[in-house]
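User: I need a structural model of MYO5B protein from Chauna torquata for a docking pre-check later this week. Nothing fancy, just the predicted structure tokens so I can convert them on my end. Input:
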Amino acid sequence: GIVLVAINPYEQLPIYEQDVIYAYSGQNMGDMDPHIFAVAEEAYKQMARDEKNQSIIVSGESGAGKTVSAKYAMRFFATVGGSASETNIEAKVLASSPIMEAIGNAKTTRNDNSSRFGKYIQIGFDKRYHIIGANMRTYLLEKSRVVFQAEDERNYHIFYQLCASASLPEFKDLGLSKYSYLPA
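Assistant: Understood. Predicted structure tokens for MYO5B protein:
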């Protein structure tokens, strides 16, 4: 299949705005510069043409921008699928469970808020190819982080949030104390 190598620039660039989405919409792969929107358009067209499910696999190292790339692909689908202003599906899918970030994100040497989850995002379309819903499944990838952290890294955020809340009555039975951790 198609392979796109993307680099996380760590800042907002004008190459992901609405007008760029419309520029890639309806184009054939290779007619324009390589872009996450070109990959998304190809998947969208093949879904509509062949009436078959499509997959986009986003892979890379910690801090490479995988989650950001997935957000851009969802923004593309929401815009070309007629859902962007109606439901803001991108925001609903990615913000559907904010507690997941606290439970599954940790500080690494490359990223202060690195997701330690694998994510499988399934987007549902109706017969007119408009987004009608989405489902996100997560898979914890680094169980070892629970008991060990490399130098300059931290455990999952939830660990520090629980320790900081140790004095609250509802946490008294957990046996935590404010001295059981050193915040980074």
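Before docking, keep this in mind: The radius of gyration is 20 Å.
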